Amino acid sequence: MTDLSPRSGLRSWFSSNGRLEFCITLASVTLLTGACVALILVPRNAGPLQLATDEAEVLDTSEGIDNPRLSPVRRELQPYGPILVREVADGAAAEALLVAHPSHRADLDVLERQLGRAISDVSAVWGTEWNRAPVVVVASTPAEFTALTRSAGAAGTDVAAVSLTGSYTPGTQPTDQRIVFNPDARRRVGDEGMATLLRHELTHLATRADTVDGAPLWMLEGFAEYVAQRDQQTTFSQIAPTLTTRLRAGALPTELVADSDFTGVDAAYAYESAWSTCAFLADRYGTTALTTLYRRLATGPQSPAAQDAAFTAVLGASRAELLDGWRAWLRGRAA
Ligand SMILES: [Zn+2]
After folding, report:
1. pLDDT tens-digit series, residues 11-43
2. Domain ranges of the chain
3. How far is the CA of 28 from the centre of ligand 1 (A)?
4. Which CATH class is domain 54-209?
5. N or C: lower Cβ tally within 10 Å for the chain?
6. For residue range 121-157, what is the model confidence (pLDDT) as tens digits?
7. What is the whole-number distance in angstroms between the Cα of residue 328 and the centre of ligand 1?
């Protein structure tokens, strides 16, 4: 759950000396970010020069190939084969980019239909002051997914993640963010599940500028899942099956879910519990209060006392009142 940066035009210069039959000429390609890429020009039998590139071949595109933000993606994906590219405009300053390999063309089609709406859904809660032109990549293999997310220090679920590819200064609006889908994501969660994942990861991306590592995960993950599930035609037990089972067995939570619960065997419950906390807060105090609480608690690690102070300041409630209200809300939904 993290994320990327703006790049402008791509200019390249290359030259060669035709009389040197075996010479290799390096031409530098300068991106707006200052990154450099080398193109190798190999003379072929004194004929036309053949260009060997270290960028993935673009097989088809909806006119996105000239988009300067595509170049870093093409370089990173080059070892994994040719790519397909789509642009999705939603009224933001730049177009969102969707990238997948030919083996995942159907995933690309699904995401192309869903992305504009997902961006709008996130903006409906968070506002439009975020980079609404993400780069979304569908990995073709587990190895590619790992490479694209691990290298960027991604966090998140194992079916999708937001990765930060550039340097990032907390408090600034990151633009070098991308969302990466696991190759099996659509098979595992279906088309509607892809839309939910998209909204969840887009929420992480939208809130990144206001989010500092170490902030309480119940707030970060619960908020992303609240935005992802909001206004969908899904029931409580569909969204939170593990939580529902426990509630029906009479087990009500006694505290907000701890950060340590988000990894390991109880991770599904942790996400569902965090979602239910935020869904309750939005239901009881309103979406604006929930968003205000997010901005306050996402500023870094929060002691129990600091969280208590935030509950009082934003919600006008003590922790005990919040927990009592949440449990009553849960009891009413677990029947
Ligand atoms: Zn998440």
Report:
1. 222 233 333 332 232 222 222 233 332 223 333
2. 54-209, 228-331
3. 38
4. alpha beta
5. C
6. 999 999 999 989 899 999 999 899 988 887 544 444 5
7. 26
